[in-house]
Amino acid sequence: MLLMSLKARFFRTFANLPLPVRNDVAVVVDGQPISWNVLKIEVEGNTKTGELGLEILNKLGFLKEDEK
Questions:
Q1: What pTM was computed for the model?
Q2: Residue 3 has pLDDT above 60, yes or no
Q3: Packing angle of the helix pair 48-60, 36-44 (nearest 10 deg)
Q4: What is the distance between the alpha carbons of residues 35 and 32, in angstroms, rounded to a whole number?
Q5: For residue 66, what pLDDT is reported?
Q6: Structural domain spans, the chain
Q7: Which of 19, 47, 49, 56 is found 20 to 30 A from 29 (Cα to Cα)?
Q8: Burial status of residue 27 (CB atoms within 10 A of its CB: 0-12, 13-18, 19 or more)
Q9: Burial environment of residue 43 by CB neighbours within 10 A (0 to 12, 13 to 18, 19 or more)
C-alpha cells in the first residue's frame, strides 16, 4: 500500500479523535510508546518511526479504508 494513502488515512483518523485521546499511546515502535500527537509529528516529518507507526496502525485495523 502506498505510504501517501496510509498518511491520508492516518490524518483522517487523527482528525476524528477526541482531543484528550490524542495524548494516549497509539503504538509501540521499537519498544517505545508513541502517542497519537507524537505520531502525527513523526508522520509529518517523514521519519522512519512515523512510517513504522503507520504500518502498525494499518495492520491493527485502526486506519479506516478509503470510502468508495
A1: 0.88
A2: yes
A3: 120
A4: 10
A5: 64
A6: 3-60
A7: 19
A8: buried
A9: buried
